[in-house]
Amino acid sequence: MKILFVTPELAPWSKAGGLGDATVALGKALAALGHEVRAVTPLYGSVPGREGMSTFIESLKVGVGGDPLKAACRVRTLTVAKGFNAWFIEHEDFYGSREVYPTREDAAERAAFYGRAGLDACLSTNWIPDIVHCHDWTAGLIPVLLNTTLKSSALGQSASVITIHNLQHQGLYPRRIMGYLGLPEFLWNPMELECLGGVNFLKGGILHANRVITVSPTYAQEILTPAFGYGLDDVVRRRSQDLIGILNGVDRDEWNPADDKHIAKSFSAKDSGGKSACKQALLRELNLATDRKLPVIGVVSRLWDQKGLDLALQVLPKYLRDGMIQFVLLGSGDAALENEFRRLAADFPELCAVRIGYDNGLSHRIEAGSDFFLMPSRFEPCGLNQMYSMAYGTLPVVRATGGLADTVSPWDGKQGGTGITFQHADVVGIDWAIQRALELYQQPESFKAVQKKAMEMEFSWSKAATAHVVSYKSALGG
Ligand code: ADP
Ligand code: GLC
Predict the structure, then answer these.
(1) What angle is formed at CA 252 by the lines to CA 250 and CA 256, rounded to 5 degrees?
(2) pLDDT tens, 352-374?
(3) Separation of alpha carbons 80 and 101, rounded Å
(4) Domains (ranges, CATH) in the chain?
(5) Is it the case that residue 212 has pLDDT exceeding 80?
(6) Which residues touch 430 (CB under 8 Å, ≥6 apart)?
(7) CA nearest 447: which of 432, 434, 437?
(8) Other residues' Cβ atoms within 10 Å of the Cβ of residue 413
(9) Is 13 exposed, middle or buried (0-12, 13-18, 19+ CB in 10 A)?
(10) Which ligand is nearest to the CA of 136?
(11) Residues 6 or more apart from 55 whose CB is under 8 A from it?
(12) Is the CB of 419 inside a 6 Å radius of any atom of ligand 2?
């Protein structure tokens, strides 16, 4: 099949969270199955290596309204893997800045432009995809375009699929975006795009894609309910027959402790000796005490309400005060949370280190050097870090929600399970889970057995790609 991804993130060129990892890994796995994959994505100011890209289309006229001078772009390309090319949309005005999701007056036009440019690139080069696979809200109006404005074009027979990586972010913008994209007026209607007085990008995608995918089976169930639906659960329920949860995987090219250029010493399930060297190296790197023999709890995360780390902040001081854990965090996001974590590190300089910012190398070293990895998420569509943790023998301590529930099996008090899970996203739940982790740590035999089981878990992108192909085929039939 010919498959076009429309995605705002493609790692390592752009990444705000797991979406960038997921789109690249899935594209590679689909290409490995013999499919032809192209991914259209913006060329943000922060994208590295543009010198090495070639020009695919020097000047592409894009079918959008507004200032005609702003309706053209250059398309650059590079090969991600055999059978998988990225198309980078170069448009200085929209994407010249470094951020992936800036707040700006023309945010809606900026979000919509690159996807429409991808469709125009297909039309102008006569590369007509069987499947247009849209990822998250910025791509949400693409299935709508295919069903309406572009129905009589060569793309009219392409089927569309949308993956909801996160239902919290929907893209709600003023009505003028419809005119910009040339969408028909009848779509301005609460059963269609209209939502709270604006146009909801993700709602459009959910309603118009031939199939709706989300990134774990449990999240696929959760988003049918008001508690997880972020106001769109009724819309998701309208598509429940066409909704499926397919679990993300671990990209072993990037996340493999036996072959990871970022970590101090390699190790594996068979020979985990190197892990203690990684722990010592991490403590040294972060200027923490190296002689305490305490369990290290790690976090790498966006600091966002989704992740529940505000709750963890209420629990951690007790354990640090009693000298029972060391804690390391790498993250950025909400300024208040950033400051709270900085303060925690200042209060416990030997036991707690906090790095605010984005640092891929350090994220690998935290995965490798920690004993436990904390994810107390309020909701988690899939979550990649708990799977990376398991691969690195770092036991996940997670709230049993979404993909966390689907990937971590709870320690049974003996030698069974792959981590610690707790039910409620509240202070009591996290406190209970940390106590449980300490209990496990104090039983070295059980800890080793659980660690080995975690490391042997296979979260395969190849399996995920095969499941996607089944969805693509049903989308083409539907
Ligand atoms: P989400 O997509 O909701 O943020 P995931 O667990 O799916 O959550 O993916 C998060 C990804 O982003 C992981 O690859 C993680 O290592 C990475 N990440 C998050 N914050 C940082 C950071 N500050 N520095 C480096 N990597 C980060
Ligand atoms: C989102 C979700 C996360 C998921 C990632 C990749 O950002 O928050 O749970 O793992 O997308 O699908």
Answers:
(1) 105
(2) 999 999 999 999 999 999 999 99
(3) 23
(4) 2-249+461-477 (3.40.50.2000), 274-455 (3.40.50.2000)
(5) yes
(6) 308, 311, 312, 315, 374, 376, 422
(7) 437
(8) 12
(9) buried
(10) 2
(11) 74, 75, 76, 77
(12) no
The answer, yes or no, to whether residue 478 has pLDDT greater than 90, is no
Strands (DSSP E) contained in 62-216 are 72-81, 84-90, 131-135, 159-164, 172-173, 194-195, 198-200, 211-214
Pocket test for ligand 2, best of 137, 166, 218, 222 (most atoms within 8 A of CB): 166
Return the closest-CA partner of residue 156 out of 180, 132, 186: 132
* Residue 399 alpha carbon to ligand 1 centre in Å: 17
**Sequence-ordered list of residues with C-beta below 8 angstroms from that of 470, at least 6 positions apart, any chain:** none
pLDDT band at 206 (very low <50, low <70, confident <90, very high): very high
Can you tell me the distance from the alpha carbon of 127 to that of 57, in angstroms, rounded to the nearest whole number?
A: 13
Strand partners, 172: 200
pTM metric for this prediction: 0.97
Residue 280 CA to residue 395 CA, distance in Å, equals 17
The whole-angstrom separation of Cα 373 and Cα 49 is 32
Measured CA to CA in angstroms, residue 252 lies from 260, 302, 349, 399 at distances of 10, 22, 34, 25
The answer to whether the peptide bond before residue 12 is cis (omega within 30 degrees of 0) is yes
Give the tens place of pLDDT for each residue, 118-131.
999 999 999 999 99
Tell which atom from ligand 1 comes closest to the C-alpha of 307.
3
Which class for 279: exposed (0-12), middle (13-18), buried (19 or more C-beta within 10 A)? Answer: buried
Indicate if ligand 2 lies below 6 Å from the C-beta of 303.
Answer: no
Indicate the pLDDT class of residue 64, thresholds 50, 70 and 90.
Answer: very high
| CB of residue 385 inside a 6 A radius of ligand 1 | yes
Q: What angle do CA 183, 185, 189 make, to 5 degrees?
A: 110
Inform me whether the pLDDT recorded for 27 exceeds 70. yes
363 CB within 6 A, ligand 1: yes
Using one digit for the tens of pLDDT, what is the confidence trace for 443-463?
999 999 999 999 999 999 999
CA of 451 to the centre of ligand 2 (A): 24
Helix axes 274-285, 360-369, angle to 10 degrees: 130
Residue 128 φ/ψ, nearest 5 degrees: -100, 115
- Rounded to the nearest 5 degrees, what angle is found at the Cα of 340, between the Cα atoms of 380 and 287? 95
Model confidence over 408-452: pLDDT tens digits?
999 999 999 999 999 999 999 999 999 999 999 999 999 999 999
CA 385 to ligand 1 center in whole angstroms? 7
What is the structure's pLDDT at 377? 98
